[in-house]
Amino acid sequence: MSGWTAHDIPDQRGRIAVVTGANGGLGHAVARELARKGARVVLACRSEARGTAAVDRLRADMPEADVELRLLDLGDLASVRSFAAAFPYERLDVLVNNAGVMALPYGTTADGFETQFGVNHLGHFALTGLLLPALLAAPGARVVTVSSLMHAMADIDLRDLNSERRYRRWVAYGRSKTANLLFTHELARRAAAHGADLVAAAAHPGYAATDLQTAGARAAGQRAVERVMRIGNRLLAQSARAGALPVLYAATAPDVRPDAFLGPSFAMWRGAPGPSWRAPRTRDDRAARLLWAASERLTGVTYDALKG
To answer: Which SUPFAM superfamilies would you find in this protein's record (predicted)?
Structure first.
């Protein structure tokens, strides 16, 4: 892994990838490099205008890029179901669950879930389950879910998944990122138990400069915090392109193990991708199973091919 860069991505010709939140930031960087290596990339975006602009940027830089836009709102399960029902390909080689929100004021999704838990975890849980037949049809398919070192801030609360008792926006964010890792753990376990040729892994970008850091403060009207975040992005963070490397490694490198968690190798902040520390509770079998059962109940999406 030492010194691994986007130039080391294996040839992706003939492979199909879906990247959520690919209109900007990490998602756009991931989509760009997969397309550069020859993959057919579906940019799954909530905004048609921003998604179209992202596709146009890719085609302007790489006229040969095989990219397309499909609308997906992870905060609306009807949209998730529509995206999956209209998915035009019989197989899916790479699913990158990247889109997310961070530290927003309290709100709910179209289905009444707390926004961060609903978008960051439940939306991707439903999407992955609905696309599972296409994933299982692709030998060696990858599901890469983008978590964060901020998962260390909070464990999930199975009695209060939607933060109805008390809402603290950073705690809610940490819980959603813990949920991402528990989901990866349980998906990897189920795939292995059923002999499925599917690798479920997770990754984080370290500290990468994207709009994610400023969006929450902007939504809360915290202009001073937003300014501090912008300064931090400018002075301390690595680029979105560099932050995307662990995600790209998880999505394409041949030696990625199921339930791996990858991130920048230098102090988990920046640099080439490598194995990342994760809280031991994110490998708790019981918590992962209980979260899975709750997620199936809340979304109505069941992973029939990986039952048990």
So the answer is: NAD(P)-binding Rossmann-fold domains (SSF51735)
Please give the Cα distance from 201 to 283 (Å, whole number): 12
CATH 3.40.50.720 fits 6-206+240-303, yes or no: yes
Give dist(CA 36, CA 240) in Å, integer.
16
Query: 89, 106, 167, 173: which is the annotated catalytic residue?
Result: 173
Contacts of 274 (CB under 8 A, 6+ apart): 1, 2, 246, 262, 263, 264, 265
Specify whether 106 is catalytic: no
3-state SS assignment for residue 187: helix
Give the β-pairing of 261-266 and 270-275: antiparallel
308 residues of the chain, pLDDT tens digit each: 668 999 999 999 999 999 999 999 999 999 999 999 999 999 999 999 999 999 999 999 999 999 999 999 999 999 999 999 999 999 999 999 999 999 999 999 999 999 999 999 999 999 999 999 999 999 999 999 999 999 999 999 999 999 999 999 999 999 999 999 999 999 999 999 999 999 999 999 977 555 554 444 444 554 544 344 444 444 345 677 888 999 999 999 999 999 999 999 754 556 789 999 999 999 999 999 999 999 999 999 999 999 86
Q: Which residue in this structure is represented by tokens 């205008």?
A: 49
